[in-house]
Write a structure and sequence with these properties.
The strands form seven sheets. Strands 1, 3, 4, 5, 8, 9, 11 and 14 form an eight-stranded mixed sheet that branches. Strands 17, 19, 20, 21, 24, 25, 27 and 29 form an eight-stranded mixed sheet that branches. The longest helix is centred in the last third of the chain and has 33 residues. The protein is mainly beta.
Length: about 475
Amino acid sequence: MAILSRGATKMKDFIQFTLILFAVLISTTGGNPEVVFGQVNSTVTLPVTIDATGGIYVSWESEGKTLVKCNPFGSLETNTEEQWKGRLSLSGLSLVIKTVQPSDFQTFTCVLKQMNAVISKTTIRLSRVTVNVKPGALLVKGGTLSLTCDAERTANFKIHWLNPQGDRVATGGAFTKTEVTKQDAGVWTCVLTHDGRESRATVSVTVLDLSPAPPYPLFASTSSLDLTVPCSIPDHLSWENFKAKGLQRGKWSFVPSQASNLISGNPEELGSFSFGDSPTWKAVRDRYYVPDSKNSLSLTMKRPKETDRGEYVCTLEFGGGVTLKSSVHVEVLQMQYPAGAQTVAGQPFNLSCSLGHDLGPDLRVKWIPPSRSALGPLSSGQHLSVSKAGYGEYEKWKCELWRNGTRLTSDEIRLKIVKPPVSVWLLVTICGAIVIFILFLILVLILRRRNRQRKMTPRHPKRRFCQCENPKPKGFYRS
């Protein structure tokens, strides 16, 4: 039994010696540490990969302190000091550090043991990388963006940049973009490549701009009660952001189109904004007003007219001559009708529905006749000829402007229907008939009067003849 015991002891010692020799052969100690780049307030992973299965004991250490321990059964212990509390975890064998602090840029050591023997020892240097933005992370559209990426020169590395869309745009530690747009807003990434491993540092850029204007013209009609032309800032921005970049003044201006029939083509200022706690509007004319709203500068005009056709420009002015503009084109539909908005019953008349110019291939007009009209399908052109007006007191005609199945706006009129005038010959005939009728009455009256007079006149007495006693010569004599 003693011989067997001594043999077992020798076998155990041989296994331990083999494991120690294996650990020495694969250990990474003694060389330069690996380098991983990290950024303040980011999350970084210190990677360790090894082909070992079962019974692995993991220990991460730094500056003489144990940070994380994990036994072969998966029981994890982390450092509870204030510096590390709640920020350490393991992903496999790799150490994950959350919300990196400036004091975290140091050297870390990972020790792997199996059966109490060290099988691996890895040293990693966490080096600081910093991304800077000039003149700042808050920019006005049209300005210049300058980015720099600096890292501790603990190893050779290469740098390239990714834009917010994830596209590679430049190489090197410095990058400049002129005439920034809304697409440049978001997270820019500095990618550092070292020994085939990538480390990333990011910076978020905000670009101040007005919300996009509608892609199509804004349509109204002379029948509309009012028209609102949109202008606002994005919901994720505030007026404090704009004032921080030197916002001084805002305004609305109007450039009439040729279809508006205005002589002058110069911009006309409709009103201006001042910026205190919130935008305050002062209009040039009362028909323009801006409803109170958090982020809106939208302009509302009362009773649009054909002279309101044109370009409406919302402008924000900053110090140094920097401006932001949003332009909206306005079209006003107008129905043209007979003079005085009236026509004669039973007579033809013409109507037209116009924007002041040709509609183009994607727009069409739909005519809607009075509800009692017996007219068939009407044409879809700008002009309409009606062969006969109705006989009611009023007729309501309506035209609608459509684009690809979408109704854009409409205009309507109440056309007064008047009775047709009496012709001259008809008047002569009527007058002649009246004269004849009067003469006939006069004749009847005369005849009746004469007849009445005859009845009232006494008859003459009968003539009598007599024979005298002393006859006279033969014959009859009047007595």
